[in-house]
């Protein structure tokens, strides 16, 4: 496999490249349109083609679920189960063999047939190397994944929630504990809102929840700040034909961290939450905390906020950030993250497409890329492997020219 960028200027050199990380086998059971499908591949990038609706995105979604969170569609557990009317949605599972520096690892996830209640409290099962794990964090410890999908096209234009989620996924690539902090914070925030809305003034319970929000919230803000700082440097060294994305993290808690140590910021957040109870009881949510922060993105060369850029320019900015992140993960964890690029390539012009392929090959990243037309991937030649999907089965298509 080719290991050097042809015309990129990546700061990841051949000396810093080490073992790569890749999926060798993925098995889907009762997952969306798949009754059972098995895919075995090598370390090269994977090109997935097929007609509309054959299940390309579903396969990427299955891979994305082998990470903490709700996957690339933010789906609920019952929604994913294969609907084969008149039966009701049931259990589903995804399993994979991941090749890592430490050898092959087995990861798996799915809906627990013994605990299917369809409520938000239902949790998916996570298994790593045959052991059932207490939290999804165990998945992030094995490998990290980053994705871009057509649903993310409005990410730089729409509300801040999507950008926070995007940034949190980038943080996870470095810090598996971030998954625990975000879910503990969200849980405490929801519980506090519920109590306040119900007019409950139980001081001890509210203080406990606000203490949790302060501790996990400041940990989230610290991690997001560190990630943004690293990304600012990495984005400045963009490769090939991608624009430089200027980044800034906007948020009150992040601002406090510029001025004082994390422990004092925790105290400030705790007391602000305590003081805003009556207001929050009326407005819902919480007036303070990292759930109100935003990742601001700017097109440096045009000196233009990303939201005012064209759809193609916004996509190029997002890819520029994702590639910068992959280079950072490569340097810090020794292997680039898995990349899931759904319907991304067809929308790039030829120069950018080539830059993307060069960087993917340079980083030895197993990128899974989908499209309806295999021709747009022809520059990959034999550096990639080609799969096609038909009638719920995945086949090896051809080896590229
Ligand atoms: N829970 C489910 N059970 C059965 N089928 C489902 C379920 N959820 C989605 N599907 C079906 O899976 C099919 C494949 O969807 P998917 O989004 O993966 O297609 P795709 O190949 O990416 O298509 P496109 O090229 O149009 O983006 C769709 O026809 C959809 O209706």
Automatic annotation (TrEMBL):
Gene3D superfamilies: P-loop containing nucleotide triphosphate hydrolases, RecF/RecN/SMC, N-terminal domain
Cellular localization per UniProt: Cytoplasm
Pfam families with a match to the protein in the record: SMC_N
Signal peptide positions on this chain: none
Entry GO MF terms: ATP binding; single-stranded DNA binding
Family note: Belongs to the RecF family.
Function: The RecF protein is involved in DNA metabolism; it is required for DNA replication and normal SOS inducibility. RecF binds preferentially to single-stranded, linear DNA. It also seems to bind ATP.
Annotated protein name in UniProt: DNA replication and repair protein RecF
Species of origin: Kiloniella litopenaei
